[in-house]
Amino acid sequence: MLAEFGDDPHRYASAKARKNYAGTSPITRASGKKKVVAARFVHNDRLIDALITQAATAVRVSPGAHAYYDKQRTRDTDYNTAPRQVANRLVGILHGRLKTGTIYNEATACPHQTESLVA
């Protein structure tokens, strides 16, 4: 994933920019009467494949990612949308980790998801 994102630490000004490049963030088109949210179809295929694979693995092994996936599925998102939303969240977490130079910590990354699992 890092090879596809590039090695310039200043290339992405924000997590949103990184998510847009990855193709995980949705496109929202709104007019006065109608709002449509759709998936991005123009994206780096290798990067999105790696991110969806990472999201699927995270859902299996991470309680926080699994709780987030379950939350998305209860909102009636379909099978393809829920992993993409998990991947979108993980890209945001990756951006924060690269920006601050910290390692991944489940309790920090998903505090509201893991609280209910611990209690």
Overall description:
Strands 1-2 form a two-stranded antiparallel ribbon. It is built from seven helices and two strands. Helix 3 packs across helix 5, helix 4 packs across helix 5 and helix 4 crosses helix 7. The protein is mainly alpha-helical. It has one domain. A hairpin with a 4-residue loop joins strand 1 and strand 2. 61% of the residues lie in helices and 7% in strands.
What percent of residues adopt helix (DSSP H or I)?
A: 55-70%
Strand content: 5-15%
What's the total number of strands? 2
Stretches where pLDDT is under 50 for at least 5 consecutive residues are none
Total count of domains: 1
Mean pLDDT figure = 87
Neighbour order of strands in the largest sheet: 1-2
Short description:
This protein is mainly α.
Supply database-style keywords.
single chain, 119 residues, mainly alpha, two-stranded antiparallel sheet, 61% helix
Question: Secondary-structure map with pairings?
Answer:
Elements: H1 2-5, H2 15-22, E1 27-30, E2 35-38, H3 45-61, H4 63-74, H5 81-100, H6 106-109, H7 111-118
